[in-house]
Amino acid sequence: MENKKKQFLEGKERLHVLFLYTSMRNYMEEVLPFIYAGIEAREYVILIDNDRNFKRIFEQLKTKLTSTQLKQVHYVNSLDFYFSSGSYHPSAITDYFNKMVQPYLDQSIPFRSWAHVEWATMEEPFHLIGNFEKKVDNAFNHISFPLICAYEEWKIPNALETILHETHPYILKGDKLMSSKKYITDTPFYKKPTIELD
Questions:
Q1: Could you tell me the pTM of the whole model?
Q2: Which of 1, 54, 2, 16 minimizes the C-alpha distance to 145?
Q3: Nearest CA to 49 among 39, 37, 34?
Q4: Per-residue pLDDT reduced to its tens digit, 171-180
């Protein structure tokens, strides 16, 4: 399965994957090969994660990458990224991301991104998460790059999992990489039932 997954990921400029991980070991088994593959392809890797995970990841990277290769890994603290406006606001997050990748686009530098999506509890309004993921998916119409969105499986309520399946064309779960049967290419932005989204 690992070879099939590697073959699938190679050469994909447009790739938006939902990764549902079950443990830190499972997480590390996916994030490290994703980074190594990017470095091998001479891409920069934008790693959006928390400090705790980054320390673990960086310790592993130091054992296999040169100092020059390590400079190809651009770490972004996930708390700063998702709450750059002081709260979870999809437009502010996408603005932050656009500014972050603009130098790569201006200089035609290939890159890939790994985004660890987490909160203390998954109590953020689901329509906001759905809107953010839809905006990310729509960005592939303008920018081509591989992106994996990692969510801890046991923290995701069923309603949110459905939204995530609708906004990601591919799902990575366990050792299986598959097309999402629920993916909707032209779904409208999600609406909160009672209050208008500002």
A1: 0.84
A2: 16
A3: 34
A4: 998 778 888 8
